[in-house]
Amino acid sequence: MRLDDISESSNVEDRRGQGGSFGGGMPGGRAGLGFGTIAILTIVGYLLGINPAILIGGAEMIGAGREAVTQRTSAPPRSSPQEEQLRTFVARVLKTNEDVWQQVLPQQAGVPFRPAPLVIFRGATRSACGGAQSAMGPFYCPADTRIYLDMSFFEEMRTKMRAGGDFAYAYVIAHEMGHHIENLLGILPKVQAAQQRLSRREANALSVRVELMADCLAGVWAHHANNRWRILEQGDLEEALAAAAAIGDDRLQKASQGYVVPDSFTHGSSEQRVRWLTQGLRTGDVRQCDTFNSRVI
User: What one-character DSSP code corresponds to residue 64?
Assistant: First the structure.
């Protein structure tokens, strides 16, 4: 990706100096899960974590609405030059998302854009949706409209998912911003309310539509960002599509448990995720991302 001429977003909240402890553990006494764990829950399917363990974190959204509790420290975060380069990359990708959606969302949907701060942390921190741990993967919290990211997740993408590359990492950030756009459009509250009345299978199906729409919105960002700044280089699209395929429910379930249970999907199959990301990339149109009124997802 070509980002050298892009400024950094001022909406990056750096909590790396806090240390890796919640102080009191996960809310409700829930311990963090390791990478690769798949939990099938019926609540708040819109809380994304590309790592399936985020679904456990989603359970804590029942108590959402309380203020985020953060630990303060005067010690500056210590990091390697490589990590600081990655932080700069994240801040620049966030800036392109902000600039694209500042223009596109009012034009295409008649809704004003409000930034979603991106919190980077190490190990663990807190959000208004409950505890955040690196094992949960990146996620968006509607209760405080923030994106949470432990940048070590990118290394897991590269080594465990075999889905590395700068545009693959940018896709992860853009997907989380896609959830913020869904929230601004009023979709996430409606999904949450509907899921409380549905069976597990039906709630999962709604979650899939939320996730695939966020994939498509990530594609919309990439479409407009490339038109404006020519950020894409040879191989970038392949990186993003490979990442989308790597985090399909079918592939993750096959890897973790040896078999696939379609009724338990919460994010969509590899084929679906690639297809909806491509839809956004091709059209650049928010209206083409309406998974909820699409007969075939």
Answer: B
Q: How many CA atoms lie within 13 A of 259 on its CB side?
A: 2
Residues near 82 by beta carbon (within 8 Å), at least 6 away in sequence = none
Q: What is the pLDDT of residues 229-279, one digit of tens each?
A: 999 999 988 888 888 888 788 778 878 888 788 877 888 888 999 999 999
Q: What is the pLDDT of residues 81-96, one digit of tens each?
A: 989 999 999 999 999 9
Element (H, E) at 216: helix 200-229
By CB neighbour count within 10 A (0-12 exposed, 13-18 middle, 19+ buried), where does 166 fall? buried
Distance CA 86, CA 82 (A): 6
Burial of 292 (0-12, 13-18, 19+ CB in 10 A): middle
Statement: residue 31 has pLDDT above 50: no
- Cβ–Cβ under 8 Å, residues 96 and 106: no
In a domain, 34, yes or no: no
| Owner of token pair 């409380």 | 196
Residue 143 belongs to a domain? yes
Q: Is residue 181, in this structure, part of any structural domain at all?
A: yes
- Tokens matching residue 277: 């990301």
Q: Residue 124 and residue 73: Cα distance in Å, rounded?
A: 14
> For the chain, what is the domain count?
1
Query: Which DSSP symbol is given to 196?
Result: T
Q: Please state, in angstroms and rounded to a whole number, the distance separating the CA atoms of residues 11 and 32.
A: 27
Residue tagged 């001429």 (tokens):
5
Residue 192 lies in a domain: yes
Domain membership of residue 160 as a residue range: 12-29+40-293
Q: Which two tokens stand for residue 56?
A: 């456990």
Contact 280, 288 (CB under 8 A): yes
Instruction: Identify whether the C-beta of residue 145 lies closer than 8 Å to the C-beta of residue 116.
Output: yes
Distance CA 161, CA 208 (A): 20
